[in-house]
Amino acid sequence: MKALVYTGVKTLEYLSVDEPVAADGSALIEVEAVGICGSDMHAWAGHDERRPAPLILGHEAAGTVRGGALDGQRVTVNPLVSCGRCEWCERGQDNLCPSRQIISMPPREGAFAEQLAMPASNLVEVPDHVPIEQAAMAEPLACGWHAVDRAIRGLQQEHASARALVLGGGAIGLGAALCLRARGVTDVVVAETNPLRHAAVEAEGFAVVDPREADLTNGFQIVIDGVGYAATRETASAAVRPGGVIAHIGLGQATDGLDIRRMTLQEITFIGTYTYSSQDFKDTCQAIFAGELGPLTWPEQRALADGGAAFDEIAAGTVAAPKVVLRP
Q1: CATH of domain 141-272
Q2: Does the predicted model carry a pTM greater than 0.85?
């Protein structure tokens, strides 16, 4: 089969590779749509030691099962594989499973390929009325769904009356904004430094600002950081109101930015959020299928063979779409 393989820093090659084997309890999926994630960009840039070359990246996938009991079923893929037996799995926090694995990270190859093998329990059936490229959005949207749920549970007031700020207008940030709205938070501002992305965010009905120019100080009960750099954590620390919540998704930079003194004096809750539970993923899928997160027409579609150019353009900041979806 053909796959887009990360072979070195800022190098992707479209190569012929061995087809995956569906072991017991797994299904073989013909990948039809797979999104480019920020974590794929970090790995491509050589900034993620967990993803060494050579490796097939990509974990935001949807397609059709070929063979076995689920043959012909259209599915979207929960890429996080957990043990199902530990204390975290048993209490529904399988995203914290100590032995968790995610495709696009050894020992599991990713989905920038024509085929992918996954445990059947990680698949969610996609209704006929849902385009497959929208189904591939379940993974990044589930990250926002999980973060919003954690933020709402940590807030010390009724969330529907809260004012929310989302840092980042990419798929994680825009997805979090859509999840906030789906959960009843109507006053949502999105902060994005790339002006090319503003139109896509505004088209979804959100106010969008450049955080380098707008005064966001002390204005929001909920802040979602979908970027995770020192600068965005600094903005989050200043923007959140006393008693508010910062939910941190982004993994852009490991250190710096938080104003710990202000967080302590103002009893601000900081919550690190990693991926989603399997229930979060299923709930996100149902919200997508029901149209609760909007039409989801904002991803840009490209051929998998052209994925290398897409990575270059995303890194250069010349892609206006919040998400690029590759089609094998």
Answers
A1: 3.40.50.720
A2: yes
